[in-house]
Amino acid sequence: MADEPGRPHPHFYLPGSGKAVGYTAHPGGGGGLAAPERDRAAHAQHLTQALTQIVQAGETLLANRDPQIAAGTPGFYVEFTLPADQAGMVDKLERKGKFPIELVSVQPADDNHVAATVFVPESQRSYYLGKVQAYETEDNVREKTLDDGTVVETRKPKNERLVASIETARLAVARSFYTDAADLFPAPGVQAWWEVWLRKGTRAHLEGAAQTLGLAVRENGLEFAEREVVVVHATAEDLGRIIANTDAVAELRMARDTPGFFMGLDGAEQRLWADDLLDRLELCDTEAPAVCLLDSGTTIGHKLIAPLLDAADQQAYDAAWQVEDISALAHGGHGTQLSGIALYGDLTDVLASVGPISVKHRLESVKILPDHGANDPDLYGAITAQAIARAEIVAPERPRAICLAVTSLGDHWRGRPSSWSAKLDALAFGREEIPRIITVAGGNIREPIVAADYPARNDLMPIESPAQAWNALTVGAFTEKSVIADASFAGWNALAGVGDIMPRGRTSVSWHRDWPLKPDVVFEGGNIGVDPASGFGDHVDDLALLTTYRYTAERPFTTTGDTSAATALAARMAAQILAERPTLWPETVRGLIVHSAEWTAAMTGYLGTLNRASLVRRYGFGVPSLARAIGSLDNDVTMVVEDSLSPFKMANGKAATDELVVHELVWPKERLTELGGTLVQLRITLSYFVEPNPGERGQSRRHSYASHGLRFALKPADEKLDVFLRRITSEVGARPPKRQGSDAGWTIGPQLRHRGSLHADIWEGTAADLAERNSIVVYPTGGWWRENLAQDRLGERVRYSLIASIRAAEGVDLYSEVSAQIAPEIAAEVAIEV
Question: Which of 257, 277, 323, 624 could form a disulfide with 352 if both were Cys (CB 3.0 to 4.6 A apart)?
Answer without folding.
Answer: 257
